[in-house]
Amino acid sequence: MHKILRKNIFREFRGSFPRFISIAILLALGAFVLIGLKVTGDDMRATGNQYFRQHKMADAQVTSTVGFNNSDRKYIERMKHVKQAEYSIYRDALTADSKKRSG
Q1: What pLDDT, on a 0 to 100 scale, did the predictor assign at position 29?
Q2: Residue 23 lies inside a defined structural domain of this protein
Q3: In this predicted structure, what is the pLDDT of residue 59?
Q4: Does 74 reside within a domain?
Q5: Is the C-alpha dihedral spanning 46, 48, 52, 58 positive or negative?
Q6: What is the pLDDT of residue 100?
Q7: What does the mean pLDDT of the chain come to?
Q8: What is the 3-state secondary structure (H, E, C) of the chain?
Q9: Total tally of structural domains belonging to the chain
Q10: Could you count the other beta carbons within 10 Å of the beta carbon of residue 53?
Q11: Residue 35 has what DSSP assignment?
Q12: Contact assessment for residue 87 and residue 73, using Cβ atoms and an 8 Å cutoff
């Protein structure tokens, strides 16, 4: 019985060898993609942190819809982990020659 079963299994593999190879390739490709995605996250974080340190970019950014008054600024500057704080104002504006689009 085992001999006949083994013969049938090998006959099926020989008869559908291209299908077997394509499934094996798909499984290998899936494994490589999964491994690549797991490794890429750590590498991207390390590269980003190195870039931020090298270019002395901000570690955090605090925004407000109404702005910061002097007491807010003093509070931020007194925080023990804040080495330097910069303040700026962002405004949306339309120039005189801009065309308004209607949706």
Answers
A1: 97
A2: yes
A3: 78
A4: no
A5: negative
A6: 65
A7: 86
A8: CHHHHHHHHHHHHHHCHHHHHHHHHHHHHHHHHHHHHHHHHHHHHHHHHHHHHHCCCCCCCCCCCCCCCHHHHHHHHHCCCCCCCCCCCCCCCCCCCCCCCCC
A9: 1
A10: 10
A11: H
A12: yes
Tokens of 28: 């290998």
Yes or no: say if 70 and 87 are a contact pair by the CB < 8 Å rule: no
Question: What type of residue is 16?
Answer: S
Residue 74 tokens read as 């003093």
The pTM of the full predicted model, rounded to 2 decimals, is 0.41
Chain length of the chain: 103
Our measurement of the distance from residue 23's CA atom to the centroid of its chain's CA atoms, rounded to an integer in Å, reads 30
pLDDT digit string, tens, across residues 85-97: 888 888 888 787 7
Q: What is the pLDDT of residue 10?
A: 83
Q: Give yes or no for residue 101 having a pLDDT over 70.
A: no
CA dihedral (23, 27, 32, 33) positive or negative: positive
Domain span including residue 36: 2-57
